[in-house]
């Protein structure tokens, strides 16, 4: 029903406006009691789907990637679609508007999206107030820096977000790989990245019960840079990696919007993100967990990433194009392969 009726209607309108409209719809249907119906339709309950990764027990390995519920406004309702975990953010210390509109583009012919949102969010403290009401949803907190913060001061921004979110999230994701904040990707270089992760790990070690810290990386890194990532993960002893964020590549695109600036997500990213997962898994001798994300539009896409070395997977663009039935299909396929 989603692909036949709902998606064609939604795709007639501006994608950013539709995003907020969809949020309102989901919230409304949950308020009038449809939450349990959504759960009954989309949730696959089976103990064999449970995964223990970086010390956390996930009820199933399919999560919602960061960027969909940036401000933690809808995580409770979204969890009713069968997700095993929800990642909120990217959050910054101070709320910011993000980049000028129009900044979100569908590439229908390519089953893709280009975004140049620019970490638009209401700030970490607003999200914290909403997370205080969490009723059992496993939450990842994706953190970044404000646009106006120079790279030499970026560590402070990550520290602020880490401390504010610590009591309310189950794991952290350090985002230095978005292409939409000027110079942010420069923080992926070995020296600044090691310093940033080490500072956060030092903060983490002072907590009574430390929480897993993961690094989200770009798909555009070279093999040499990926080997650096492995070295950094082992040196700083962070919990793992999320592979991958959006790409700057435009190879093979058909859609008229292909020249738009920003990060590309969706089907064109399927192959590359899986290559990065496989490379990291093999070259590190599976020494740390990987969450696979990028171009998952079918159950087979998810299985491919799991077989390449991912412990968990996340959806974003595939969820928009395929609908919530994709979550169920992936979990069913995982069970069928056991």
TrEMBL record:
Its EC number is 1.3.5.2. GO terms for cellular component: cytoplasm; plasma membrane. The active site is at 178 (nucleophile). Its cofactor is FMN. It is a peripheral membrane protein. Catalyzes the conversion of dihydroorotate to orotate with quinone as electron acceptor. Binds 1 FMN per subunit. Belongs to the dihydroorotate dehydrogenase family. Type 2 subfamily. Pathway: Pyrimidine metabolism; UMP biosynthesis via de novo pathway; orotate from (S)-dihydroorotate (quinone route): step 1/1. It catalyses: (S)-dihydroorotate + a quinone = orotate + a quinol. FMN binds at residues 66-70, 90, 142, 175, 216, 244, 266, 295, 316-317. This is Dihydroorotate dehydrogenase (quinone). It is an enzyme of class 1 (oxidoreductase). Substrate binds at residues 70, 115-119, 175, 180, 245-246. InterPro entries: Aldolase_TIM, DHO_dehydrogenase, Dihydroorotate_DH_1_2, Dihydroorotate_DH_2, Dihydroorotate_DH_cat, Dihydroorotate_DH_CS. The keyword Oxidoreductase applies. GO terms for molecular function: dihydroorotate dehydrogenase (quinone) activity.
